[in-house]
Structure formats: C-alpha cells, structure tokens
Amino acid sequence: MPAISSAAGRIFVHNVRLAPAPGRTGLPAGAPPVGFERTDPQALVVGASLIAAADKVPAAMRQDVVDCTLFAQLAATAAVADTADVERWYRAYFGTLAALGWAQSDTGFEQ
C-alpha cells in the first residue's frame, strides 16, 4: 500500500461528505465523555465499532483511533445510502481509513 502524504490526507478530510453525527444515547444528560486510560488495557464502544487498546497504548493514540473510526463511519454512512448494502458500506469505511493513512492487514467481509 502506498504511503499517504499529509497533504493528500488533508485534502481528503476537507472534501469528504459526512452523515450527521448521532447523539449520545443511553447516557444521562451532562454525562462526561469517556476518558482514555494511560497504560491499562481498555475496550471502547465507538459508534458501531468495538475498539480494544492494549496496555501501554498512549491515550493520545487511543483518541486518534476513536476519532478516525467515527470519521470513517460517518463518511461511509454518507457515501452508501442503502443501509442494506453492508459490503459497500464496509468498502467505503475501509477506504476512508486508508485515505486517512491507516494500514490494514485484512478488510475481508463474511456474512
């Protein structure tokens, strides 16, 4: 996979269309955002994804993963109007992550 330049990433982010962000559900009004652990293992539900962070993954990197995951979900949802077309949604999701510079070992999808 070719390296993504920071300039290309900025252009992509500037031009991508995003779906409206859903509100936080199931939390009391005024609940604080989730904090990121500094060194402990941590699991986070991020939109429609489950993120697992191993110990010693810095909090800033955890935030980056969460931000990119949510961004890719919103971009994929905006790009694929047919919610039943799961494979196309996943292609758009992984394509967004690739455009942001994330390396992916496997993007296979099985039903």
- Beta percentage is 5-15%
Oligomeric state as shown? single chain
Low-confidence residue ranges: none
Distance between the termini: 26 Å
Tally of DSSP helical segments: 3
User: Helical percent range?
Assistant: 40-55%
Structural class label: mainly alpha
Mean pLDDT: 84
Shape: globular
**How many runs of DSSP E, i.e. beta strands?**
2
Radius of gyration from the CA trace?
A: 15 Å
Please give the order of strands in the largest beta sheet.
Answer: 1-2
Task: Name the helix and strand elements from N-terminus to C-terminus, one letter apiece.
Answer: HEEHH
Main pleated sheet: 2 strands, antiparallel
Describe the structure.
The chain is mainly α and 111 residues long. It is built from three helices and two strands; from the N terminus they run αββαα. It has helices at residues 6-15, 59-79, 86-99, and strands at residues 42-46, 49-53. Strands 1-2 form a two-stranded antiparallel sheet. A hairpin with a 2-residue loop joins β1 (42-46) and β2. α2 (59-79) packs across α3 (86-99). The model has no long low-confidence stretch (mean pLDDT 84).
